[in-house]
Amino acid sequence: RPIPGSDNLAYLENIQADVTAGIGKVKPVGFKNEREALKTATDFTKKARLTIVRGQGGIGKSTLLDEVERQNSNLIVLSVDPGSEKVNGKSILSIANQLARILEKRLAPEEQEKFERILKPLKDYVTQSDPDQLTEAQTNISAVKDYCQRALQALTLNMGAFVLAIDDVHHLDGTSDEPTMDMIHEFLGEA
């Protein structure tokens, strides 16, 4: 569902490479304007934000997001696996696993201990076997959404405001779509 006129939403549409090279597949060379727009959109420290990047498939949006994320500690990129749209629950399972890895990377051990109570359900979830994670995502998706929401809260409490970019949202599977959008709304404080 759309996010109504929010001041904490950056929307970059019709992303295009400055120059393309290659035969058959489009390969981006450049992105000067888009790179600057994305850096501006993600250089935000006043409150949490969401950045949406749209453009033709295969032109390098994910690569661009990854590049900007490496340069900006206030940006967290979560990516929806393109293959996940075929398996219900797989998208939110992927987001949960990415958030667990981000928490390990961004929170020092003493900070992880500080947030142990709210992060334990996520840790327990991601340490299950892949089939068990998928079963839980399919049968109790609201719990998995809650694990992700708690991870975002812990990151906000630890880092302060940051920008969240969810890449390849159009690949969300049917089961994960609404809970993921709800999670985004809650993250933005607009639920």
Please, could you describe this protein's structure?
52% of the residues lie in helices and 16% in strands. By secondary structure, the protein is an alpha/beta fold. The strands form 2 sheets. The protein has a 4-stranded parallel sheet, with helices on both faces. It has a two-stranded antiparallel sheet with strand order 2-3. Strand 2 and strand 3 form a beta hairpin. The chain is globular and about 45 Å long. The termini are close together.
Helix content percent band: 40-55%
The largest sheet has its strands arranged as 1-4-6-5
Q: How many E-type strands?
A: 6
Unreliably modeled segments: 1-7, 17-29
So what's the overall shape? globular
Quote the average pLDDT: 78
Rounded to the nearest angstrom, the radius of gyration is: 17 Å
Count of discrete alpha- or pi-helical segments spanning 4 or more residues:
8
**How far apart are the termini?**
11 Å
Category by helix and strand content: alpha/beta
SSE succession: EEEHEHEHHHHHEH
Largest sheet: 4 strands, parallel
Q: Quote the beta fraction.
A: 15-25%
Question: Which secondary structure elements does this structure contain, and how are they paired or packed?
Answer:
Layout: E1 9-15, E2 19-21, E3 27-29, H1 32-42, E4 49-55, H2 61-71, E5 75-79, H3 90-106, H4 109-114, H5 116-126, H6 130-139, H7 141-159, E6 163-167, H8 174-188
Parallel strand pairs: 1-4, 4-6, 5-6
Antiparallel strand pairs: 2-3
Helix pairs in contact: 3-5, 3-7, 5-7, 6-7, 7-8
